[in-house]
Design goal:
Layout lengths: L4 E7 L2 E7 L2 E5 L4 E5 L4 E7 L2 E5 L1 H7 L4 H31 L7 H10 L19 E5 L2 E7 L4 E5 L4 E5 L2 E8 L2 E7 L8
Antiparallel strand pairs: 1-12, 2-11, 3-10, 4-9, 5-8, 6-7
Length: 192
């Protein structure tokens, strides 16, 4: 028995997609930087070193006497020599005053004036020791004052430049869906 029936053939719809990718271009300009460093302030104060040398005692030992002390010594020496001269003159006067008593007073006085006193020479070192020279040293003083100046920094940030090209998505029907039906069997199959 050949019953009629329908045969169907179905094809599904097919879609197609075309895409264009989005693009992103980015440009970042560097930041603008400005740095200024002012000079620091430096001040230097110096108190000079001081060296004091007192060689008075050493000079006295070599025969060089300060003026004031030299005047005092010569005055004292002159006083002593003057007194000795007065004493000697008085003594010689007394001897010559008694010339009549004999004893050859004139020749004795002349002989005492004729012979100079013997000079005494000694050998020594001058100055006799280093403690005769007094040294006083005051070192120099240096005062440094420095004031630092802070740097001046200015930063200008540049924003990034973005260029965006949007992507596209195109969806289209690549193949139409389709349903085909036809009868088969019975009187429709062409046999009956």
């Amino acid at each position: 028995m050949n019953l009629p029936h329908l045969e169907m053939r179905q094809t599904s719809a097919k879609i197609g997609i075309n895409t264009t990718r989005a693009t992103l271009e980015q440009h970042q300009a560097p930041a603008t930087l400005s740095i200024e460093q002012p000079k620091g302030n430096l001040s230097i104060e110096t108190i000079a070193a001081r060296l004091e040398i007192d060689s008075t005692q050493a000079m006295i030992e070599t025969g060089r006497i300060p003026a004031f002390e030299s005047v005092q010594r010569y005055a004292e020496h002159g006083r002593q020599v003057g007194q000795q001269a007065v004493g000697r003159a008085a003594s010689e006067g007394d001897q010559l005053m008694r010339i009549e008593q004999g004893g050859n007073a004139v020749s004795r006085v002349a002989k005492s004036r004729d012979t100079p006193p013997a000079e005494v020479t000694t050998l020594g070192f001058s100055p006799r020791s280093l403690d005769r020279v007094k040294i006083n040293y005051t070192p120099a003083e240096v005062q440094l004052n420095y004031t630092a100046e802070r740097p001046r920094i200015e930063v200008q940030v540049n924003r990034p430049e973005l260029k965006v090209t949007e992507g596209t998505v195109d969806i289209y029907l690549r193949e139409q869906n389709q349903l085909d039906m036809w009868p088969v069997g019975g009187m429709f199959d062409g046999e009956g």
